[in-house]
Amino acid sequence: MTSMPRPKGRPPAPRFGAIDLGTNNCRLLVASPRQDGFRVVDAFSRIVRLGEGVTATGRLSEAAMARTLEALSVCADKMRARNVTASRAIATQACRLASNGPDFLARVERETGLRFDLITPEEEAKLAARGCTDLIDDGAEGVLVFDIGGGSTEMSWIKLGPGAPETMAWTSLPFGVVTMAEKHGARDMDRAAYDAMVAEVAARVEAFAEAGPMAPLFDGKKAHLIGTSGTVTSLAGVKMHLPRYTRREVDGAWLTASDVARVSEQLREMGFDRRCAEPCIGPERADLVVPGCAILEGILRVWPADRIRVGDRGLREGMLIELMEDHHARTRRG
């Protein structure tokens, strides 16, 4: 079928690119704005484990940097091929922790042309929450948005009411699935070791007192959780018995607290080899999903909510929304 030519005088729709370089994953999203949000034009995700070993050595390893550079070259090629109008690339916990993180990002710019912002934990938490606002249930009075990353876990408590949602508190915990796996071991874990990990997380979450004013909403069942991480999407895929991971099936789905407890225990009991064979986990996540489950259960122990909304989205979507808003504002001024 021959495509219809674009009417003369109508400029091509702008395209925006967002790259999220985390401790475990490298992710790209290219999108064009639409009246109701945006349309995804291209996407890319690869597990690079950039932060592998950083907690022990304080440095990014040569092997991890090589894996990451290869993935970022793919991202740069895709954005050029898609004629991206404006873009933003961010780096998070691994590059924040590593003594050679800034040097690596300078190398990335020399070799790929991609310029990265090394963002703060506060901006990371706010971007993750911004990317998930349309997952908030209309009947809720508050939500806790959490992003369990490879090297850190960001949480934002948001109050709802007249006007725009308001972030009441946020925190960044200095651990994620990679760092917890390296600390505790995760290929095979008995129940006592798992419970100890949950208790460790809960103690750190409970120590953050600034979110205290939100507690009545959770106690009164007026709030729910939104999870944006691979841990939560994997849990949802396993719970649904999906033969292969499919974003459209998972994004926006709901889990209950009992679902989380049941599937988490199921994954722990599987052992490493069976998790490798699970289609919604696979070999690349088989040693990371159980620490992620422990982090989630630790959060639920302190902030109990029976409903958890699953989001296959987060930092990239938050960046895209901000890029499009900035473009719209400049267009109106111009």
Automatic annotation (TrEMBL):
Keywords: Hydrolase
Domain of life: Bacteria
Domain spans labelled Ppx/GppA phosphatase N-terminal: 30-327
Gene3D superfamilies named in the record: 3.30.420.40, Exopolyphosphatase. Domain 2 (3.30.420.150)
Pfam family, one: Ppx-GppA
EC number, as in UniProt: 3.6.1.11, 3.6.1.40
GO molecular function: exopolyphosphatase activity; guanosine-5'-triphosphate,3'-diphosphate diphosphatase activity
PANTHER family on file: EXOPOLYPHOSPHATASE, RETROGRADE REGULATION PROTEIN 2
Protein name: Exopolyphosphatase/guanosine-5'-triphosphate, 3'-diphosphate pyrophosphatase
Species annotation: Parvularcula dongshanensis
Upper classification of the organism: Bacteria, Pseudomonadati, Pseudomonadota, Alphaproteobacteria, Parvularculales
